[in-house]
Amino acid sequence: MHDIRSVRAEPQAFDAALARRGVEPAAGRLLAIDTDLRAVQTALQAGLARRNEASKAIGAAKAAKDEAAAQELMAEVAALKSRLPDLEARERELGDALAGELAALPNLPASDVPEGADETGNAVVHERGTKRAFDFRPLEHDAVGGKLGLDFDAAAAMSGSRFAVLKGPLARLHRALGQFMLDVQTREHGYTEVVPPLLVRDEAAFGTGQLPKFAEDLFRTTDGRWLIPTAEVSLTNLVRERILSGDELPLRFTALTPCFRSEAGAAGRDTRGMIRQHQFEKVELVSITAPENSDEEQERMTACAEAVLDRLGLAYRRMLLCTGDMGFTARRTYDLEVWLPGQGQYREISSCSTCGDFQARRMSARFKREGDKGTSFVHTLNGSGLAVGRTLVAVLETYQQADGSVHIPDALHPYMGGLNRLEPQG
């Protein structure tokens, strides 16, 4: 959410930043509403002040036995009481309109974000790891997993498309990946593990930017709650409507949760396999920082996600997303893309974004520095550390063998109960 004061101060710069994201100018529209709102607020304040002043004067007039003056003042107070509710209603109407307009606009990109209309404008920051050389033609994960306990037919029979059933040792490998990721982030990188709600109210989804713009991408329950599309929603809202002390920052949270997405805008994309599903698990990373530390924290968070890929021996690259490919709430985003030899291409496995104070304004999340009289909005960051299903896809494709088996990366051996290899079933 944007601060109308910054729009007033630099309307041209605001529109120029929106233009970088392909959004039409909005400053003129916002300032017109703001001007009307401030005029109504001024009239309302003046009316309230005059009503109070006149009410006091009535008593003085009556004490002086000046009945004519008292009657005149009483008539004025009655007129004001009749007019003020209309001004109050107009103030609410304009305030809601301005808030709605501000909430519908995406975050402004950082100055170092490259311009571009879509993913073709993204920039490679670095590549890590070695792509495995195969002496046979590598298969895609659905072909590899189909012999190891990956069952799309059973899932479709009970739930429809974009679901999967994992069975036996393959299910254990999926669980092992999530536990390994949590252990790396909590034991080595200082994140606090959280078990958060999977159902949230409108206010929580609004706070992190899912509502109102992306309601169709979410699943809603019959009692009006929303299934989380990512634990970012729950973890970031831990500081909702709070005033933190400066020495509490940074806060770093992580959670392994199921995530639920309708994939409303993904018709025809990734209909095979586990890349894009309605239900999946992900280890989420969230940081709450002071403004001056948020850029450094984004680098740290992204490195924490990369550490998992490094330990699993997976080849990947870090991408700096362009203005046209960033998410709604992001000020800057790094995508980590893992190499999938079966597909012969890189695929996103993590996004790590800094949101500045964009979400904090929507949540009213502030902090107070020692010695300061006022408060400031915190900065929020979020990232995947990692998407478990997509990591499983990468492991299956990278470590597949010619006989259909899959080697298990060394880092996962402690989580696999002695298994170091998945063998085809039947």
Structure summary:
This protein has helices spanning 4-9, 11-20, 27-63, 67-104, 141-145, 152-159, 168-188, 202-207, 232-236, 294-312, 358-363, 388-398; strands at residues 123-128, 150-151, 165-166, 192-193, 199-200, 219-220, 226-227, 243-245, 251-260, 279-289, 316-320, 332-340, 345-354, 366-368, 376-377, 379-387, 406-407, 421-422. By secondary structure, the chain is of the alpha+beta class.
Q: Would you give an account of this structure?
A:
It is a single chain. The protein is α+β, with helices and mostly antiparallel strands. It folds into two domains: about 5-105, Orthogonal Bundle (Helix Hairpins); about 120-420, BirA Bifunctional Protein, domain 2, CATH 3.30.930.10. Helices cover about 40% and strands about 20% of the residues. The protein is built from twelve helices and 18 strands. It has helices at about 5-10, 10-20, 25-65, 65-105, 140-145, 150-160, 170-190, 200-205, 230-235, 295-310, 360-365, 390-400, and strands at about 125-130, 150, 165, 190-195, 200, 220, 225, 245, 250-260, 280-290, 315-320, 330-340, 345-355, 365-370, 375, 380-385, 405, 420. The strands form five sheets. The protein has an eight-stranded mixed sheet with strand order 1-11-12-13-16-10-9-4. β6 (about 220) and β7 form a beta hairpin. α3 (about 25-65) runs antiparallel to α4, α7 runs antiparallel to α10 and α7 (about 170-190) crosses α12. The longest helix has about 40 residues, at about 65-105. It is elongated, with a radius of gyration of 28 Å.
